[in-house]
Predict the 3D structure of the following.
Amino acid sequence: MGKQPHLNPEHRPELRNRTYMNKYYWEQFCQESRWIQLHPGDTHSRWGEIVDAWEAGIKLKITRVVRQLKCGGYTPELGQVIFVPWSKLGFAYCSQQESQDKSVFGYGQDQVYDWDTFVDNQRAKGIWEIYDHGV
């Protein structure tokens, strides 16, 4: 049996030249999905794509953030790459569609947008390469 389509570089060109700390860990961790919601049930919701996984933890690219506007606290930005050690990791697998759905940053309509809109804005600013080529 071959690799899952979401892990196969033939189906996902962005995976072709990606480097990993431990590709075996990444492939095993991503068997169900490369997309997760971090700490479901937290005040601020965060979703992302698993970029790498190894003995120490995972590296995650944040693809969606929903802030509870009545609450304060730190929330990573869209496109930010974060490391989460296994001892602090709580997650639920999800679909790519759910992971890249609408993000909410504030009360106005200009504070609600999806991953594609975010990428288009970054491309317009000339910093698309960070998001286009993976990490």
Q: What stands out?
A: The mean pLDDT is 81. The chain has one domain: 5-132.
